[in-house]
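Minutes, project huddle
Topic: does the predicted pose make sense with nicotinamide-adenine-dinucleotide bound?
PN asked that the exact inputs be recorded in the minutes so nobody has to dig through chat later. Recorded below.
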Amino acid sequence: MQPFIYAQSPVRVVFGAGTKANVGSEVQLLNCHRAVVLSTPEQADQARNLAEALGPLSVGTLAQAVMHTPVEVTERAVEAVQSMRVDCIVAVGGGSTIGLSKAIALRTDLPQIVLPTTYAGSEATSILGQTAAGEKTTLRSPKVLPEVIIYDVDLTMSLPPHLTAVSGMNAIAHAVEALYAADANPITSLLAEEAIAVLGKALPRLRENPNDREARTDALYGAWLCGTCLNAVSMGLHHKLCHTLGGSFNLPHAETHTVILPHAARYNAAASPDAMRRIARALGAEDAPQALFDLAKSLGAPVALETLGLKPADLARATALATKTPYPNPEPLTEPGIRMLLENALSGTRPSASASPENVYA
Ligand code: NAD
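Predicted holo structure (tokens), as shared on screen:
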């Protein structure tokens, strides 16, 4: 076995159905009395319900979270939080709401209780992406890691089928990259393989029946494992490409992850055979990149960047941006290789089998 470093997050996890009823006792366990409940405008009702359930432990709601955590929104929220004399943040929602919670925590050191309603995994990470002057930058800080995660399957039952599929693929991407990360370790690899297997079974069941509670439970469990992987190791080509495409071309977050993942896996396949074996085993398939593509397609999720709004004319800039700053990745990054990857992702071409010689990226 290779030597490794593994740091465990100091997070308390409450998992189950109906667990949102625990929010009051979790606020009290943190010795807090004035919680604000955050959400997006679309999930304002869920935030209001939680605030009502908190009763005198809540000072109100802020339903202002939007995608990509713009700093102007955060600054307004920090002012509101200070004038309401908040001592604890409760966030109910997906990565956008949890992003706002983390951005407030970064600036105020307030403790956070988060109730995730998608599979994005942000709740389990000390990573925060923020947008200022049209540019999204990412930081890691223990200050932004939530103190408590309450996973309540009930809150995920309303996740629309399209979001279920793309958010689930977004989660799987964390696990895939964890398997070939430069700082991979036996613990995250175990979590990652289990997560891919669990989500690989749950997502097709949810495509059949979005109200399948058992599949919803499995998907949420898998999403937690994926978020834990994202936090524990550094991410490579896939996440960097998605970041570039999201930040510079304004492509939607989870959909972009869904489209890029099979191609990033194919790019790295020859350089990470053990990771590919584990992904293929988890999905019960022969070839990992093809299995990821087939899974996305079977879920009715997008498989081509052109359907997300990227144009052929954007490829040169996207390639240049994606190869500008070097970072660890199993397969060295080359401009022609990344360009070919993006061309295939643009048109939605199924990746060639990892063992086949044609269409090799690098
Ligand atoms: P999101 O939070 O933007 O949610 C998308 C939409 O779905 C919103 O309108 C939301 O209100 C709604 N929604 C969410 N859950 C719902 C539910 N159960 N029922 C009905 N509607 C629901 O989407 P997301 O993909 O979870 O988050 C994307 C953001 O999270 C991006 O900004 C991304 O950068 C960030 N993110 C950060 C990390 C990290 O570790 N920092 C990890 C993953 C994603």
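Observations noted during the meeting:
- The CA atoms of residues 304 and 347 lie 5 Å apart.
- The chain has a mean pLDDT of 95.
No decisions taken; revisit at the next huddle.
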